[in-house]
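Entries read chain and fold; for instance:
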Amino acid sequence: NVFLSSSPSGEWPSAMAALQHVQVVPHGSGVVEVRLDRPAKRNAMNKRLWQEVGHIFSQIIPHDSTCRCVVLTGSGKVFSSGIDLSSMGLAAMGDGGSDAAQRGMRVLREGGEWQAAWQSLNNCRVPVIAAVHGGCYGAALELIAWADVRMCTEDTTFRAPEVDIGLAADIGGNQMLPKIIGNDSLLRELMLSGRSMDAFEALRFGLVSRILKDQETLMAAAMKLAQSIAQKSPLAVLGVKTLLNYTRDHTVDDSLKFGITWNASMIQSSDMKIAGAAFAMKQQPTFPDLPSAPPSKL
């Protein structure tokens, strides 16, 4: 699966060749679709899949100057059924001989790598729109918690079943969802009981911003939004995402200081002049890409 043909280094084919469970599909105009692709397994997440997600968002997407927005999707009937229990061997993560510290270190190492993979959506310099359909369970729910925008189909069901398999969600569920869902009692109910939440409840409490009738209209809406974002100044878009992320994790005073410090350098770019000239001439502005670098191999 060849990536963007306009990539400057010519290294995209080799960077993408190692992918097995995730597809990267360019849609033109700066929009790229990242698609979980294990439909026969309901896009269940084995180690290879989450490693590929982390690699794409940390080592491929950020290094392509032509990519300005990502739409995250899933192949088949559901977005993802969550952890692939048949291959992940969760109980084995604690194996490492009789020494408890050794077993704990293995959990910390592998769990930390998975956390970093999911967090790469948040750290990626372009916005990520999660387009969710059918079902979104467990680790998949934690994955979309790191996206910038979430929308879903009417038939989508969300569920955090980790409590039913003897663990507490630790790759974003109990960490990011409290910052997203504006009802602490509801969130605790969902995470403690493992019960399902339908699309309309998810919209009501802020997990998603839109509900679409079916997968076709969902993709159309997600792509339309992505194309709109891709037309903006990529420097301004990066600034919005960076400042919102910072504000989420800091006080208002700290965030104001960080924001003005950021803009002290960023507003010196040519993008404001380009936008002003285009506005005066009633034209669509064309902004330069952000700098790029060769992608890393998986």
Notes: Residues 10 and 174 are 41 Å apart (CA to CA).
